[in-house]
């Protein structure tokens, strides 16, 4: 029986619980009734973000045990009083849940809330048991960002909006206007390829993409890259550099490629990496800007859904997501080497 089929006949749901190392097991979980402002969402499709691979591999700290997963699309099956969506709505939801009251939230940095909670990053034995998307259901607390998804937008496009595409929207905002600009994109994964297409759509004069994998560079050409280079090659001068690989060597190359007044946006280093060497004189004399982006604000998720809807026919987005597999395969997806497609997918 589909554990999402009926709340009246299914008092439990199924979740893939990460219990440390490479251990991920399907476990029954009591199906909660949403409280005020909360939503219970049946997960239709989840995609596997690279940060979850880092967690399972031990490259970043995370609560354990937990239900991982923060890129997904689903439909609301129960809504608490005052919730932001109704039963039957097809939605995506943001990674971060801010308190809305601290100085960071009121100052426009809800993603860095002092009492931050995160989808797919909460302890399984805590108050928010069904926090992750590698499950048949996820419970979204009051204050979570929830965005409706148009019927014309397929699940394979909508799910990555919740992390990859929204993060790209935040990075592009930090980069400033791109019309007529020479843009360097470091890393041709999900974020890098999305940024490549978006930069082309925003009128960049040239979009140069670097990566260590030839197959990914080939794919970049289908997403608007005007030129590709291996990561060990020296790029020409650029106005904007977007670093998504997380490699310090790539960030160093990107910083060195900036022309006068250039901007470097760092978004890929979400695990500990080597220190980035910076020459203060070069920054001063070059009028350079270096900034970081981690997670995103609610507006960026809305922008992500709007952008994917508008560019639905412009780029071959479906090629970035592998065919979906059942929930019991999530452990293998989290531990296997990266595949040709930047995103694996799970259909609970």
TrEMBL record:
Its EC number is 1.1.1.1. One of its GO terms (molecular function) is alcohol dehydrogenase (NAD+) activity. Pfam families: ADH_N (PF08240), ADH_zinc_N (PF00107). Residues 191-308 form the Alcohol dehydrogenase-like C-terminal domain. Coiled coil: none annotated. SUPFAM superfamilies: GroES-like, NAD(P)-binding Rossmann-fold domains. Its cofactor is Zn(2+). The keyword Membrane does not apply. GO terms for cellular component: cytoplasm. It is an enzyme of class 1 (oxidoreductase). Keywords: Metal-binding, NAD, Oxidoreductase, Zinc. Belongs to the zinc-containing alcohol dehydrogenase family. This is alcohol dehydrogenase.
